[in-house]
Amino acid sequence: MIDADNIVQKSMNLFPEQIKDSFEKSFILNIPKEYRQVKNIVACGMGGSRFPHYIIKELFKKEIKIPYIINDDYNLPGFVDNNTLVILSSYSGTTEEVLESGKEAYQKNAKILGISSGGPLKTFLESINAHSFYFDPIYNPSGQPRVGFGYLIGGIMGILLNIKILDYQKDEIISAISGVDIRNIEKEAEQMANKIFGKYPYYIVSEFLTGVGNAIANQTNETAKSISSFRIIPELNHHLMEGLKNPKETVKTSLFLFFFSKLFSSSIQKRYLITKEVVEKNNIETLWYELKGENKVAQSVELMTFGNFLTMHLSMLYGENPATVPYVDYFKKKLKGI
């Protein structure tokens, strides 16, 4: 076990509190009823403020009845108008792409909501009198967005329930958040980190867990300073299986970690088993992790928690500092100087 004083460890232990705090507060925001009439959603965010939208979008794919687009560059889609809900998401409030998208959304007369801890984004949102949720990240002492992304998860769910775009039982969400077994999940994640150390992990996900796979790949890059990918069943069955032979040196370091759920549709469950067989026929190592939660929300929170600890322990094995992102910081500094 990592020292309890570790700042990243502290944040990860508080992950359920992050979600619950922002969920309960965003759910009671005073948002005009006209926001319930929007025809589509465009969520703007990058990195640790982007993948929470992907998680929610895939988790509630059947419950959200209008198009939900993730916008991860400087420009908004051409269809954005006064019937579009544009959600500006930036943990720090400094994200350049989100700020530019916000200005364009205002020009297009879109309905704007913000989620942030403050910064220039808060200044912009207040200048246009936009309705927003500002969280106080007391449950993320690390200060890193990818470690405090529970605030975005809870905030997005609370807002979508608030404006009745998401049709789901609030009590079931609260129960899923409260039911996280932090101690046992960390133990399993630490064991898994030892197994994938030194490998190029491919995280295999499907259906309602798709967005969480993206999050874990992101955290592996930033927290563990290790290369990774996430792939989706059934999409990978149409091409990736033929790409497992070459180059030989890359294949030797590859590892497929299958995140499996008995809540997946029967067709997907069959595909998992056959895909695992095909990967092993190519002499590539496979690992299997089965989610235990009673419903899809519980399993999603479980896997988010697992991914937090998996990547933290992996960073320690590599001798990396999970609390810093030196190359991301270097890039941003250089960009400002141009």
Automatic annotation (TrEMBL):
GO terms under biological process: carbohydrate derivative metabolic process; carbohydrate metabolic process
Entries under InterPro entries matching the protein: Glu6P/Mann6P_isomerase_C, SIS_dom, SIS_dom_sf
UniProt keywords, alphabetically: Isomerase
GO molecular function: carbohydrate derivative binding; glucose-6-phosphate isomerase activity; mannose-6-phosphate isomerase activity
Keyword hit for Nuclease: no
Keyword presence, Ion transport: no
Matches recorded under Pfam families: bact-PGI_C
Span of domain SIS: 31-171
Family: Belongs to the PGI/PMI family.
Protein name per its UniProtKB record: SIS domain-containing protein
Top-level taxonomy: Bacteria, Candidatus Roizmaniibacteriota
